[in-house]
Design a protein that fits this description.
alpha/beta; Rossmann fold; 265 residues; single chain; 10 helices
Length: 265
């Protein structure tokens, strides 16, 4: 029976049978596919797909998220290629359509994430596993909301890069995670990942907390000291970037991590 589904960009895909050979170009979605029990079906991943750890030794590396080796992907003869609107470029998606259908996700919030998991359940015929992960995430989110009830909010700046300094702005999954933590992002009126002038932080919102993500840039103690100089005594905290920016099944761990983070404030 033919499978007809639309991805999160509303592209229609038709499959004669459930896809068996998967190339994943998104680290968090590789982790999700593994957690859905699809390890044997994953034939290609990016060099940034670091979870689960053993995939680096057992799966074919096809490049990065922004630059892939089209020939390597073609050699894997995939039935479907999993991409993401933000992680992968339009050029990559278009070039890979000649090889196999490219399923593109678009995740801006938790509901989008739940939709993706549900879609994967239908696409790969793992509906029961998908339902389990959806239930786990919904439970963890409800539990965290109860935990956060009555907790004060904090003005924050969430840094992802240096030279130039870049922060998470509005319209991002990171910003949604900040909101769930009662963090008021001083740059949420600016879209995506704007470059900022750190000397203007005080007049642009003067954060109480400066969050330095562990990825994609490895911030160090001297960076924390430098950024702190341009605030009114903001507390600088190194945070696990995967917990704020990875979607998929990672959210279950993220809500537990957020509890520990909140208790450190």
């Amino acid at each position: 029976m033919e499978i007809i589904l639309r991805d999160q960009l509303a592209n229609e895909h038709r499959f004669a049978t459930s896809p068996k050979r998967i190339v994943s170009l998104v680290p968090s979605q590789t982790e999700l596919l593994y957690d859905l029990g699809l390890e044997e079906n994953i034939v290609g991943i990016t060099k940034f797909c670091v979870h689960p750890k053993h995939f680096k030794a057992t799966k074919k590396i096809v490049g990065g998220t922004k630059s892939v080796h089209v020939e390597k992907i073609a050699e894997l003869n995939p039935d479907v290629i999993i991409a993401n609107k933000e992680e992968n470029t339009l050029e990559i998606v278009e070039s890979l359509k000649q090889i196999a259908p490219v399923w593109v996700t678009d995740i801006a919030n938790v509901d989008d994430n739940l939709q993706m998991i549900s879609d994967f359940g239908k696409l790969f015929n793992v509906r029961t596993e998908a339902r389990k992960w959806i239930d786990k995430i919904v439970y963890a989110q409800d539990d965290f909301r109860a935990f956060m009830s009555g907790r004060k909010s904090h003005r924050v700046a969430y840094f992802i890069w240096k030279n130039p300094h870049m922060v998470a702005g509005g319209g991002t999954f990171i910003n949604e995670m900040l909101k769930l933590n009662n963090f008021e992002n001083i740059y949420q009126e600016r879209e995506r990942y704007p470059e900022i002038i750190i000397q203007k932080m005080r007049i642009q919102g003067d954060p109480e907390l400066v969050l330095l993500s562990s990825e994609p840039y490895p911030f160090k103690d001297e960076d924390a000291f430098e950024l702190g100089r341009f605030t009114h005594h903001a507390k600088t905290i190194f945070v696990d970037g995967e917990m704020f920016s990875w979607y998929g099944s990672r959210l279950v761990k993220a809500f537990g991590y957020f509890k520990v983070l909140q208790d450190r404030l």
